[in-house]
């Protein structure tokens, strides 16, 4: 599977409400990021986003000052709202994140003490924001439906197709379990506990067969946070009491934090 196409984990966002009061015919408010940090330390401003108070505005990264509001005509204490969001990465620790911002009033295109936006009026207003990034384990898989042809007699029969997965997680340890109702045919049923799996190496060759068992554990990750690809081959153990035939199953992969 294409690891490069894996999306970033869900971020957090929230609204910052502020008011503007100005006697000027033209006015504006810009926001600048003082800093944003989490459990692993400072976060790049390019991953902190602000959605200005303009109708239909889209979020933009906090790279330099961002104009969040402008107006024409005196403003008698107008209430405005901007939204601030953080886009985390899988390798980052979950937990509390917080930052501070400066709201800077200015006159668009004015003369005097010039900046990139116009004349700064001051004083600046310092506001803070905080959010929580949750622990998450996300799985992408190449298939959900599987089938096997079981002949008469006992033995281990290979299931098709092989399975490729990508586990993206911000947990230090994590688990992937297989869930499903077992393999069924027109004449019989094989419980999921009789499924076995072998992990495939980079050349597609299987390792030793491991029974899935009652707990359904497929993969126990200790590689830490990040994006981890893996590939597997399944097989079903057939007994003398099972009927020969074509069996199929829908398998679900469930991810969670490890012990």
Protein traits:
259 residues, mainly beta, Immunoglobulin-like, Jelly Rolls, six-stranded antiparallel β-sheet, 23 strands
Task: Describe the 3D structure.
It is a single chain. By secondary structure, the chain is mostly beta strands. About 0% of the residues lie in helices and about 55% in strands. It contains no helices and 23 strands. The strands form six sheets. Strands 2, 3, 6, 8, 9 and 10 form a six-stranded antiparallel sheet that branches. The protein is elongated, with a radius of gyration of 28 Å. Mean pLDDT is about 85; it is low at about 110-120.
Give a brief description.
0% of the residues lie in helices and 56% in strands. It has 259 residues and is mainly beta. The chain has two domains: 3-133, Immunoglobulin-like; 137-257, Jelly Rolls (Sandwich), CATH 2.60.120.
């Amino acid at each position: 599977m294409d690891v490069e196409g894996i999306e970033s984990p869900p971020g957090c966002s929230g609204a910052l409400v502020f008011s503007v009061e100005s006697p000027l015919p033209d006015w504006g408010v810009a926001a600048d990021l003082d800093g944003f940090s989490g459990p692993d330390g400072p976060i790049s401003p390019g991953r902190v986003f602000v959605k200005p108070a303009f109708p239909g505005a889209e979020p933009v990264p906090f790279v330099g000052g961002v104009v969040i509001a402008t107006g024409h005509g005196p403003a008698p204490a107008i209430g405005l709202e901007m939204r601030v969001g953080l886009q985390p990465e899988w390798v980052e620790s979950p937990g509390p994140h917080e930052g501070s911002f400066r709201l800077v009033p200015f006159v668009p295109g004015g003369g005097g003490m010039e900046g990139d936006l116009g004349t700064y009026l001051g004083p600046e207003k310092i506001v803070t924001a905080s959010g929580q990034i949750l622990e998450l384990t996300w799985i992408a898989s190449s298939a959900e439906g599987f089938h096997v042809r079981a002949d008469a007699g006992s033995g281990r029969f290979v299931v098709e197709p092989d399975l490729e997965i990508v586990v993206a997680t911000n947990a230090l340890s994590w688990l992937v379990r297989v869930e499903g109702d077992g393999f069924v045919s027109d004449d019989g049923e094989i419980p999921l506990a009789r499924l076995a799996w072998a992990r495939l190496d980079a050349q597609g060759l299987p390792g030793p067969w491991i029974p899935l068992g009652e707990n359904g554990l497929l993969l126990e990750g200790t590689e830490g946070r990040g994006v981890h690809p893996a590939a597997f081959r399944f097989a079903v153990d057939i007994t003398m009491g099972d009927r020969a035939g074509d069996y199929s199953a829908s398998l679900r992969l469930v991810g969670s934090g490890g012990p």
